[in-house]
Amino acid sequence: MKKTNLSNFNLFLFDMDGTLVNTEPLHARAMDKVLQKNHLNHQIGDDESMEHFMGMTDTSVLKELCPELTDHEIDRLIQEKNIVLREILNELDQHTKDQLTAPGLLNLLAYIKEQNKNLAVVSASENAIVEATLKAFDLIHHFDFWFGRGSTTRTKPHPDPYIEAMKKAGFPQAETVIFEDSPTGLKAAKDSGAQIIEVAPFSSMHYLKDYRFIL
């Protein structure tokens, strides 16, 4: 992969889960606790399941795992899962946070800010979870704003969240670069018309593993 000339861009949009930080195991742990508590005989914490569900919303995950559940039941389970996830985030020690943060990410974010560029997070997680995660990993000060699920009517794999983020920041596709890791996120990014850098610091996909390569 050749280096991308960052000076060509003014807006840098980052997916969160799996792109900035390795939160997929934390989401899976929270979901498994809720499934067990509600006597639903499913688990998603193993490596194969996490790879399969990577980038999917909680609603999509639950509909696939438990097709018998009503929309109301799914919403209740997601609310329970998010409470558990916030508890897990609050209990992380600094060593664990360091291990779960993408290699080279902090240097890249600092460099982009030094160039007076604009940064934002566009995630399929709920707004409250995006904020809680960015705060837990001490990343929130790097970004000008963030979008979670619900910021647009349609979420990833639709391009709407990325298109809305470009509108909010006031930059066109030609001046925007998106960092994404999951199939659903990559589809949304590609359909938005912006430049894409495919990253996979925490998965087996053969994309960029270390952000230091960009600098």
What does this structure look like?
It is a single chain. By secondary structure, the protein is an alpha/beta fold. The protein is built from 9 helices and 5 strands, in the order βααααααβαβαβαβ. It is globular. It starts with 10 loop residues before the first strand and ends in a 17-residue tail after the last strand.
Fraction of residues in helix: 40-55%
Strand content: 5-15%
CATH architecture of the largest domain: 3-Layer(aba) Sandwich
The spatial strand order of the largest sheet comes to 3-2-1-4-5
Q: In CATH, what is the homologous superfamily of the largest domain?
A: HAD superfamily/HAD-like
**Could you tell me how far the N terminus lies from the C terminus, measured between alpha carbons in angstroms?**
13 Å
CATH fold call of the largest domain = Rossmann fold
Number of helices: 9
Class from secondary-structure proportions: alpha/beta
How many E-type strands? 5
Topology order in helix (H) and strand (E) letters: EHHHHHHEHEHEHE
Which term fits the overall shape? globular
What is the number of domains?
2
In the predicted model, the low-confidence regions spanning at least 5 consecutive residues are none
Overall average pLDDT: 91
Largest sheet: 5 strands, parallel
Rg, alpha carbons: 17 Å
CATH class of the largest domain: Alpha Beta
